[in-house]
Predict the structure.
Amino acid sequence: MKNDQVALPLDNQLLSFFSEAILFVKDDGSIINGNHEACSILDMDLMNNKSIADYLDFELLRGAKESHLLMELKNSSHTLLEVKSLRVSEEMYCLVLHELSIQDKADEIKRYINKLMNSTLEGIVLYGESQIIDCDDTFAAMFGYTRKEIIGKAMEQLIDPKSFEKLADFEHLAIEGVLELRGIKKDGTIFHIEILEYPYNDNGTVVRLASVKDITERIENENKIEYMAYYDELTDLPNRNFFNKVLKEAVQQANNREESLAVFFLDLDYFKEINDTLGYSFGDELLKACAKRLKTFQQMDTFIARLSGDEFLILQRNTSKDEAVQLAEYLIAEFENPIKINEYEIYTTVSIGISVFPENGTNASDLIKHADSAMYVIKEKHRNYYKLFESSISENFKIMLTMESELRRALKEGQFELHYQPQKNLLNDEVVGLEALLRWNHPEKGYIGPTEFIPLAEKTGLIIDIGDWVLAEACRQNKEWQDKGYRPITVSVNLSAKQFHQRNLVEKIGDILDETGLDPCYLELEITESMAMSNEEVILQTLHALNSIGVLVSIDDFGTGYSSFKYLSTFPIAKLKIDKMFLNEQQKENQAIVKSIIHMSHSLNMKVIAEGVETMEQLTFLTNERCDEMQGYFLSKPLPANQLIKFFA
């Protein structure tokens, strides 16, 4: 057929070269031209003025720049066509037709959709406005039915009502992309599916063709990942990430509305001691119980989260300073009630720091940091209480952070020194030992006393590295004196609690002795009475291990703790050091205590040394009571290594 009014992009000769069925159609549906293959599929004669609408539902193709549909040939229920349509001009469309046999219909639908989606599909369903027309066995099995059972059912019966609303209006034929819905199985089980729909023309009636995939496992994994990102698994409370997100939004809202909000930083008192005594599993149960108690304070304007360990955060929106204090008091009162876990009634209290927006910070980070600072102050001074943030707290923390930085530099640059205080044997009036004492020689501030920096070193964990240096330096110096021919004496080193509870302590000390060449019998380690009694079984193992390599151990500050004679009799302790508080006062009670310690120690084959001896009267008393050794300013203050030679004579 020839049409002089429309210019074809291909002439008849070129058109005949194509093996695919090709038609050119005007916008009104009239057929302009086509090749032999197209005429054969449609069973038509080009010489007759025909319209494509006589063969296909052209309205589904009109208007679109490109279309790709499955369509049944009119007047033939056994012919399925794959139709690709391209609008080549305002007035003309090019149609490429591909015939599918009815026997291959289901397989070809799958191939067709797979080609478009480039993925492997789980099931195929063909459904009308209300009922399922056809499906494959995979789709039926996915929902727990046989193919025979599911055909004829309403699609709405298989989809959760809230999910079903997501489906596009039935008459809307545009491809909407992948939808995630909740399916309902035959037994009522809810699962997650992914559905991709395509319009399909079935004998002139528009139906839906959809591919369906079971994505339950993927959704559950995504939900788990999302849960882990925003919730604490142990307590089921929101975590730090979630709290930060909510707090940032709350700050912005409070700023817009000119409202106040408060951030609470809670820390459980004595949690570490409970953990160490009853174990980590018990500690986890305690944290869950505390979280459950905190959840009772959850309100519309209150958001509660677990930060980490035994620390929790609370956001109180639209509040005042007085209301924040009131909530803190309610929390403290609630936690004064015992928590029952197994057969135990646990009494744990909370220390709370509070920061208020906008006075104490205008962003989430500062509000949390300042609440933490306030909590830190109250926990150090007065547990089971609350503290509102003050600017002076921030200044003190800046000083602390500066000192921490300087401490690290001091260790790196060798600013630490050891001074040694002589220890004299009272029976032969001979110096038999030295106590190594740490000094910080700051390049600008001069000597800084240990009481100023040791607590900070303990808190930051720097005490481990500093303690390692003290041990190595004391052993090195003692070996150097011996190598110079001076009389061998014992050097004693104080161990912090963190040092003493290191798992590799004995191995570390052994390495230091090997490196310096010092005989172990000339090293004495001092631990406090409270450290020795904190965990009997572990302490006993460590003490026996130290004893096995020949290192002496003494108890420092004896008399200030709660020692049991039973422990003293089983621990391999070489010496007890009487705390100087018993010598500062001359009351008869103190003298009686000193006498008792001396006599008890001798009965257990332990030596006794008194520290802090400053007067002749104290020395005379100790000598008369047959105390073994003494140290103190009456003999000498702590001295640098180069000033101790006179004591070796």
